[in-house]
Design goal:
S-adenosyl-L-methionine binding; Spore photoproduct lyase; 4 iron, 4 sulfur cluster binding; binds iron/sulfur cluster; 360 residues; 15 strands; pyruvate-formate lyase- activating enzyme; 8-stranded mixed β-sheet; lyase; 5-stranded mixed β-sheet; 13 helices; alpha/beta; SPL
Length: 360
């Protein structure tokens, strides 16, 4: 595994709303931001975030992506939502991500300037967990996965490890699950494109958090990821956490049939094999997500990354209608079948013990 230094995000400014400033966890976030040398920390007079918009879309994007907002999650944002196929429930420690991936899935789900909002009322956010224990449609209702417990996905609206050096929220959640505060039959899950796991390695995690790393073939990651840790760093971090006894996982996403994709994804799986070699008691899972977009996410991504080379032509895709009437564009059936067949066979051949939790 190559040498690397963990990749950190350093915002230019931190905005703290008045209500957030009253929360004990905000004090910890501010301590971390000061220690990280954030040049501008602003205590706002009210709860409205101001100063995020620039004169152009470009400036607004740049200002928002370099700002950490510390806010209070309202009850509507705290209510756990079902999040199939990943987990029984979604719990958000934050909303927004500082990285610059040109396919970012958040473009379709979050509106407004892409600022990262860290939730200061962490105890209230995590306080939603007990009411959902034993309920859910993904692991709780599955005869083959019920042993995982009730699952809570922490990375639906953010990359929790990417902002962890500035918030400490993820380590708090992991340690709380590890302490048995929510019993034995619970599992937190997160996925990340970052690699600084130093605050997680030594935690008493109790095996109740599955740390997944979002990885991709070099031609995709090198071209379309931005501001994240290199894939080699993510795999090194996966190894560190696996050696520390964490259940770990691969999120291979978004899969794209780039030229010579079998070779490119084969090289990625070779690197995964090297990263997990010799880990005692390895508990590794895989999730695979093919690239998709919606009309809305395409418009947002093209406004953020006007020169992107990302292929987002509706005419080259198959339109799928969701339960709620929205349209998403996925690869045509024969392309999907080719990708799925290859990944399923390669995973089974290389990692027979690794379950593929879902393919989508
Ligand atoms: S790391 Fe994930 S959430 Fe962040 S910009 Fe990239 S795709 Fe979006």
């Amino acid at each position: 595994m190559s040498d690397h230094r963990p990749r950190h995000w350093s915002p230019r400014r931190v905005l703290v709303t008045r209500s957030a400033a009253e929360q004990p966890h905000a004090t910890e976030i501010l301590r971390r931001c000061e220690a990280a040398g954030v040049p501008e920390i602003v205590l706002l007079p009210g709860d409205r975030l101001t100063g995020l918009r620039g004169d152009t879309d470009r400036e607004t994007y740049a200002r928002a992506k370099s700002t950490l907002a510390v806010v209070v999650a309202p009850p509507s944002a705290r209510r756990p939502q079902p999040i199939p196929p990943s987990a029984d429930w979604r719990i958000d420690l934050a909303r927004g991500c500082p990285a610059h991936c040109q396919y970012c899935y958040l473009a379709g789900s979050l509106t407004g300037p892409p600022v990262t909002r860290a939730y200061a009322n962490l105890d209230e956010v995590l306080g939603e967990i007990p009411a959902k224990l034993g309920q859910g449609t993904v692991t709780s209702a599955s005869p083959t996965r019920a042993h995982e417990g009730t699952t809570f996905e922490l990375s639906c609206y953010t990359d929790p490890l990417g902002i962890e050096p500035l918030t400490g929220s993820l380590a708090t959640a992991v340690a709380r699950a590890g302490s048995g505060a929510w019993g034995n039959d619970v599992q937190l899950r997160f996925t990340t494109k970052y690699d600084d796991v130093s605050d997680l390695v030594g935690l008493d995690h109790g095996g109740r958090t599955r740390a997944r790393f979002s990885v991709n073939a070099a031609p995709v990651a090198e071209r379309f990821d931005g501001g994240t840790a290199p894939v080699a760093g993510r795999l090194a971090a996966l190894r560190r956490l696996a050696l520390a006894g964490y259940p770990v996982g691969l999120t291979i996403a978004p899969v794209m049939p780039v030229p010579d994709w079998q070779q490119a994804y084969g090289a990625l799986l070779d690197d995964v094999g090297a990263a997990v070699e010799g880990v005692p008691g390895l508990d590794l899972t895989a999730e695979i997500i093919t690239h998709r977009f919606t009309p809305g996410s395409r418009d947002v991504l093209l406004s953020w990354y006007p020169r992107t080379k990302l292929e987002m032509e509706a005419r080259d895709r198959t339109a799928k209608r969701s339960k709620f009437g929205g349209i998403k564009y996925v690869y045509p059936r024969e392309v999907m079948a080719g990708l799925r067949g290859w990944f399923t066979a390669e995973l089974a051949a290389r990692f027979p013990e690794v379950p593929l939790l879902y393919w989508t």
